[in-house]
Amino acid sequence: xxxxxxxxxxxxxxxxxxxxxxxxxxxxxxxxxxxxxxxxxxxxxxxxxxxxxxxxxxxxxxxxxxxxxxxxxxxxxxxxxxxxxxxxxxxxxxxxxxxxxxxxxxxxxxxxxxxxxxxxxxxxxxxxxxxxxxxxxxxxxxxxx
Length: 145
Description:
Elements: H1 2-27, H2 29-35, E1 44-54, E2 62-72, E3 75-80, E4 91-94, E5 98-106, E6 109-116, E7 119-124, H3 125-139
Antiparallel strand pairs: 1-2, 1-7, 2-3, 3-4, 5-6, 6-7
């Protein structure tokens, strides 16, 4: 028991990084980051500590208040808050990689569901609403949303 207490300061970071790495694989973030590597210099509306759920299910991995988003004319840049970043390379989703956005509700929460080839991401709150509006304006520039 004494050895575990002495090793705890070394085991905790290993456990933390391991869980973060595992979540990146289970959620699909890792694969998405390989397909859509991050861009660092896009200008747009920034959302700090945003939330999203990856996958089709409402039981899928959720990034609650741990995402940084930059929504610009070219697309959406996503990154994860530092303590959870291990295994989560930045992602840049160009608008043309998103095939549709629609609204869904679950337990009194409205989600904006982005669908693309082999990915689904559900954003909620102000960030989700802004992403939906920006996508619609990109898809149909003459329309008033």
